[in-house]
# Entry
Amino acid sequence: MRSITMAEAAQKLPDLIDAAMRGEEILITKDNISVVKLIPANPVKQPRKPGSAKGMVWMSDDFDEPLEDFKEYLNYE
# Structure
C-alpha cells in the first residue's frame, strides 16, 4: 500500500485515480495521520485461470457406495 501526503495527493490526483483503478491502494495522510484510503469502487477482477485448484480437491474411492445407515431403504426386494 502506497502512502502519500494530502498536498501530494492534491497535485497528483489523476495519477492516483489511475493507480487505484489498476487495483493499487493509496493511503492519504495529513500531519502523519492516515485520513483517507483510495481504492477502486469496483474490485479489480483477475483473469480466470483454469486448473488453478488442481490437487486441492479429492474424493474418496468409496464416495458413491451406499451408506450403511440407509441399507434398509435400498433393499428393493
Summary: The chain has a mean pLDDT of 87. The domain at 1-42 is CATH 3.40.1620.10 (YefM-like fold). The helical segments are 6-11, 13-21, 71-74. The longest strand covers residues 33-38.
